[in-house]
Each structure stands twice: as C-alpha cells, then as structure tokens.
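User: Can you recover a sequence for this backbone? Please restate the input before giving your answer.

Assistant: Of course. Working from this structure:
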C-alpha cells in the first residue's frame, strides 16, 4: 500500500499488526506494536464518538481525547497515547499535532495534577499466589483457569503488562522432560511444575493452539482471538485482590506480580543486579525502587531524565 492508502487504513480500527510492521519498517518488536495498536485504536474509537478525523488529527481533537482519558487513566498512559499519535502522523508524513505548544502545556498540566500517579503498585507475592492456587486449582470454570494461569505466569516470569498481553503460544518451550519455559527477549524463563500445569490446562481447555495466549472471554464463555488489553489485565488482577480478601486500601494491578516477585527475590537474598537481570530491566532504577533502595533509584533516574517536560516524573 502507498501512504495515502495507509492513511485510510489507520483512520479506522486497525486489526492487523502487519500494518504496523509495514509503516514502521519492522523497527519495533511485536509486543511494542501490539501496545501501539491498542493505544491507537483507543484514539480512533474516541474520534469516531465525537465525529472527528484521527488522521490528520487536529490539536483540539487530541486535547479533548487526552482530557477524556485523563478521567480514568494514569499519566503514563497519557504519555503513551501522545507517543503513539505522534508516531502514526510522522510515519505517514503528516504534520505532528503533538508537537504543538497547546499539547505540551496540556501534558504539563496533567503532569502536575497526576504527580501521585507514580506511587508504587502493591506487590503480588508468592504467598498470595499459593492461596490463589488453593482456591482455583481444582476449578473447572474456564475464566478461573485462565485467570489463575495469568497470575502464575506473570509472577514467575516477572512480566510487564505489555509482555503478558502479547505473549504467544510460539513463546512456549517444552523440553523432552516435559519442563515448560517461556522464551522472552532471547531469555529463557523456566516455569514451575504447578504453573506449567495450569498454563497447559488453559491452552487445552481454551483450545488455544496458536497466536495470543491470554485472550478475552465474553459473558457467555466464548473465547476471542485478540489479546487482553491493559484494562482487562487490570480487572484480572483486581479480581485477585478481591478473592484474597485483601484490605480495600490494597489494589492489585498488572504491575503487581512484577513488583511482588522482585521483592520476594530480594527477601531471598538476590542482589539488585540479579533481580534486574531476571526481570529484564534495562536500568536498575525500577527494581531498586521496588525493593526499597531509593538512593540507588534516584541516582539511576538522573541518568535518564529528558528535556520533554512531561517525561520528568
């Protein structure tokens, strides 16, 4: 397709990741493209709801979209939307509306209003996972099986939400002894026997033989083909908190297993460097924050500060 045809394609819901690969020249990993696609479609849906064009988008349209999403989304999500909208416009040789002063001021305002968004997620720990297995391991309900597999795989793999969402059957490795591992960013992540069993059960009973591993289930029990988005993942982990009966002040999110696993590793004597490696962090800043080494976190964060006002949080 030529540029004009891609403008038409991206002016409505994008359902094929191949389009993203084409316009970006295959510069990004598929997991990143899935995240771009989710964020872009959110923008497209909003534009459709107000009868506005997503391509090229007007500055006022983006302002309205960001203000609308800010009602329910964190600052990090708002930043992602801006990055995605900018990427599509620039890649398709359209004027980037996100570089406008109004958008910069808008993001500065949301940065000031949402400073508390950076509070650390509550950790989902090994003892939480053990209790969830006790409750759901014998369940025959397909949603219970899927959610238990999500909780277990995310915890043992220290997975980010984007990694969990884009995880595919092709990422699963099983050796001759029946041991199951995940292949992620050229790193092999072994899974415990218990987690391997519930993952296999989900794949078998969910008839998931290829493509995305963790998918939506509608109210009738029908399993879709598209991956869970961030909102769905949040609800799955919110459910874990509800099932565990944790305090109303404790809310699990998609980041909780990554936080909890890092803290458990530290409690077991793992060094910051070992935790960083196991969680595939490029910088030790975040794992340092998770395990309470705030001075180390602050030192590392200084290295990555950028000039863009809304990136300095």
């Amino acid at each position: 397709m030529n540029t004009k045809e891609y403008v038409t394609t991206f002016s409505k819901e994008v359902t094929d990741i191949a389009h993203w690969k084409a316009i970006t020249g295959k510069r990004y990993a598929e997991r990143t493209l899935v995240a771009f696609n989710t964020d872009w479609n959110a923008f497209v849906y909003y534009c459709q709801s107000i009868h506005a064009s997503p391509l090229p988008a007007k500055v006022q349209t983006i302002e309205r979209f960001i203000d609308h999403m800010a009602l329910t989304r964190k600052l990090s999500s708002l930043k992602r939307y801006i990055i995605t909208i900018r990427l599509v416009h620039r890649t398709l040789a359209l004027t980037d509306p996100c570089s406008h002063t109004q958008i910069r001021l808008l993001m500065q305002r949301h940065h000031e209003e949402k400073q508390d968004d950076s509070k650390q997620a509550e950790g989902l720990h090994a003892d939480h996972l053990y209790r969830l297995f006790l409750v759901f391991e014998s369940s025959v309900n397909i949603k219970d099986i899927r959610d238990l597999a999500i909780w277990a795989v995310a915890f043992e793999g220290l997975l980010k939400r984007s990694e969990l969402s884009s995880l595919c059957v092709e990422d699963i490795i099983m050796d001759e002894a029946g041991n199951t591992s995940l292949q992620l960013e050229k790193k092999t992540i072994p899974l415990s026997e218990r987690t391997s069993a519930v993952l296999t059960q989900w794949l078998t009973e969910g008839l998931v033989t290829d493509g995305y591993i963790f998918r939506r289930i509608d109210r009738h029990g029908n399993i879709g083909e598209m991956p869970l988005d961030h909102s769905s993942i949040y609800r799955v982990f919110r459910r874990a908190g509800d099932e565990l009966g944790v305090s109303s002040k404790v809310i699990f999110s998609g980041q909780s297993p990554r936080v909890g696993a890092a803290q458990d590793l530290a409690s077991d004597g793992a060094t910051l460097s070992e935790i960083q490696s196991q969680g595939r962090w490029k910088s030790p800043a975040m794992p340092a924050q998770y395990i309470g080494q705030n001075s180390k976190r602050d030192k590392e964060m200084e290295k990555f500060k950028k000039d863009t006002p809304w990136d300095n949080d």
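That completes the design. Strands lie at 172-174, 180-184, 187-190, 215-217, 223-227.
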